[in-house]
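Archive entry. Fields below.
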Amino acid sequence: MSPADHDQGKWAWVFAPRTPNEKRYWLVKSEPDVFSFDDLRAAPKQTTQWDGVRNYAARNFLRDGMKKGDRVFYYHSSSNPQAIVGIGEVAREAYPDPTATDRKHAGFDAKSDPNNPIWFAVDIKAVAPLKRPVTLTEIKANKTLADMALVRIGRLSVTPVTPKEWETIVAMSER
DNA sequence: GCCAACGTTGGC
DNA sequence: GCCAACGTTGGC
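PREDICTED_STRUCTURE:
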């Protein structure tokens, strides 16, 4: 798929050309029992390889949308409560997901040819925890956030966030 | 190309 | 633990 394939459709803005120095925003999900925001902060260089994405829509956001320096909300799923708990940044843009071509790895996908990979990873680095977590309940209760991809397409592990949504949630975390 | 069966995610 | 909302697979 080439970037031109993203020109149409609902998410075209996510892939559209950027103005100089434009930063975009994303949300990534992790189960805290598996890898929490604190785990990320404790990792070497506070950075981890964000691999294991096996959904094409999420893959496209990750591979074609995310650029180095973009900010990401770090969301804890399947936890109590489900909430955005921290901010990270894209430390390295998309590269072939090594877990997809590793026969011994649970994420192995026989369809992914190492010479023509299907699945991609980025590196995510911790920036700072939110002053307080912003819960999914609060997000759903806020009309400004009704169109947020997190709410609309809940099961995706990588979703875009608009600047307005970003601002709104950061403000919520500060009061 | 249609669609039923199945698998996965993740909120509840 | 249940189930809604998908995406994927494979028979036809």
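CURATOR_NOTE: Chain A is about 25% helix and 30% strand.
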